[in-house]
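Friendly challenge for the regulars: who can give me the structure tokens for this chain first? No prize, just bragging rights.
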Amino acid sequence: MITAHSSSNLQLKAEIKSEAIDRGRYLEYDVYIHKLLSYSEVIPVSEMCKLQVKNSRDLYKHLSPGDIVVLNHTALVEDLRGNHLDGYQFYLKGKGFKGILEVEGRNISAFNERNGFSLLKISYTTRKYIEGVLDQSLSPLHSGMLKSIMFGNQGYLDSEMLKLFSISGTAHIIAVSGLHVGVIALLLHQLLKFFNLSKKKILMITMLVLFFYSAIVNFPISIVRASSMYYLYVLSYFIERRYDAINSLMMIALILLLYNPLNLFSVSFQLSFSATLSILLLYPIIKEKLIFIPKQLQSLLAVTISAQVGTIPILIYHFQQMSLVAFIANILIVPTLVPLLFMAFASIFFSLFAIELAVTINYLTNLLLTYIYWIVNNLSQWSLASIEVAEIKFFHILVYYLTGFVVYLILWQQHQKKLMKEKEGISYEL
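First reply, four minutes later:
Bragging rights claimed.
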């Protein structure tokens, strides 16, 4: 709709959907365009766009998510509806953006908040409060790490720190994933059981909390996938039907692709679904092969290996790098995430009564974050911590997955035969 009026003098009514990103020459926002205000009529639009605000010092109010604004003398600088986009433009189109707009700070007016309930405003306010608590109760380095872990926003960390997480193969920790949903669900289940709530109430409360957490982190694909699988599990419980994780995963993938086919080209989509499918298929087989490992480590190591096997080609294709210390790093770090997040949430809760309580609790949080940083930093310094792969072709990826599928079928048949023998042995004893 906006592209049909590609003038440099557009007047638009829009809602701010994200915090500002400082790009140097301008501030960048995600905006949802509600209306095009022409001289003779008001035209409904309903489109997501990127907004570049030049000379932002002329803004007389800080823009925050949920604000309703009028953009005067707005220019459409890029149309993302074309079929020959590449790079960043294609990425934005895949995210649902229709165009890139540009406006001067002085030409933004009519700052009004949305009337009534606004999930966006509430989630933004909650996130800012949590950020404030962590900044007050942790060191700057540790605060940035914990905020990245909780919100999956790598903007809290500098480029050197991001490089350490990438080399060590632990970048998924600071990019919200199914791991975060699993940890939150586990903590809530254990906490609510303490108050003797029924399972139905625990499931319903957990669903609400997961939805609100998804809103706080802005509904990334990985969280939508993990939360949706949990919702389907809850649905199967209430209607008393068997829950099938693989069928649920495939159905969610289909829905996301029908909603936006370009999700298929999203790195988050590819990694999230390939890792989850790989875990669902390979976990029982790999765990069975790890009988020589202490039981406390079998599950963790099986999950780590399964996820790595399923995502190696995708990681190499997109990042031209493969971590060789990822297995070690994840074994040493992942078990700390449950106590880490538990203490972080506890500190935020008790900060409502006194910030001193949050500081006291986060003394232990600081110790865990120091440990995580020490592991990531030291493993990343190894000479063979990672290897660079200049290029990987689609043919190589196809061969990898086809070979992997054949190996999986062989191992699965062996696994099934072993289960059958065990059942026959039990029947014979009875």
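The CA atoms of residues 86 and 251 lie 29 Å apart. The chain has a mean pLDDT of 85. Your move, everyone else.
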